[in-house]
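Hello Y.,

Per our agreement to keep a running log of every chain we model this quarter, I'm adding this entry. I've kept the format consistent with earlier entries: sequence first, then predicted structure.
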Amino acid sequence: MTERNIDWKACVALGSVVTTIFTMYKLYKQDKKIPEAVMGVEQLIGNTPLVKIPSLSKHTNSEIFAKLELANPAGSAKDRVALNIILTAERKGLLIRGEPGWVFEGTSGSTGISIAMICNALGYRAHISLPDDTSLEKLALLESLGAVVNPVKPASIVDPDQYVNAAKKACNDMITKNGINAIFADQFENEANWRVHYETTGPEIYTQMNGEIDGFIAGCGTGGTITGVARYLKEKRGLNDCHVVLGDPQGSGFYHRINHGVMYDSVEKEGTRRRHQVDTIVEGVGLNRITANFAHGETRIDEAIRVSDEQAIKMAKYLSVNDGLFVGSSTAINSVVAVKLAKQLQLQGIENPRIVIIACDSGSRHLSKFWKIAKDIDREISLTEVMQD
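Predicted structure for the entry above:
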């Protein structure tokens, strides 16, 4: 009788083990599910991976994750924006699939690349105006994608020849003179920008983090990413304790705007700037004016933290050497901010803060400027050295 009881218990135990192994196998297969085929490259946009950054997490006793927007097919978060702007224009009848059409934009690079790729996929043409000191690889990418490229001298937004204004004028000329369907994407003011991050990027981050997010960090160029995600997390999901931080490069006015209510920086003084827009080597983030996209979610941003060019350059090299993450300048800024925010949240009583940063694009788009300097940083650099002001 005892032997039979022992055999019965052993069978139950064995059955439990088999069931557990089978369940884990099924979960593993689900996690490793091969993506289904899609009908066009534009359908690959979004649903980007989220990866933990081991070195930063370890040294800050926190969990720091990067939302890899660089995994989009054209290589940046701007893929979402470009696609939504074009689809919105189609819904309004401003662009018609199968008929000639043009998309004009003024950009420092990444949005133009996204627009060019999506235009090719959907049968349109792209015309991109950008500062003539934009990195050479971005210019080469635009030309390789077949976009019409119009480099202009960097200038203030009030200058009629500034790159955004140049794009708008070129669009109006196309419509007036040729009567062809054309739109000015207007990423800085177009609400399709922040809305796509509210509708896609924010929900993805929330799901990937199982709703447990103590901090969210993004840079601000147009303002669409940070305001869209922040509005989703706080308004839709009620994560009011999630500390939203804007990572700002030197020379940008957002730092003072968020922290002091004034859109001004000392480098705005006449004759003190190397560049007409923002005095930094960083591309894609930083501005000295309020955009419509920024205004739509400004109240949802809790703080801005400034990062120097030197800190960003060192952090880029540090991430490459220690984590295998080869990132662009804005991601490096966000990573510096993540280290600072982790310590800040711990002082507020959160023992193991969970923080998400946006990894907007790859370092391959910054080889001739940002990484030209970053590559020479000592590979043995410590995180303490990176964070030195």
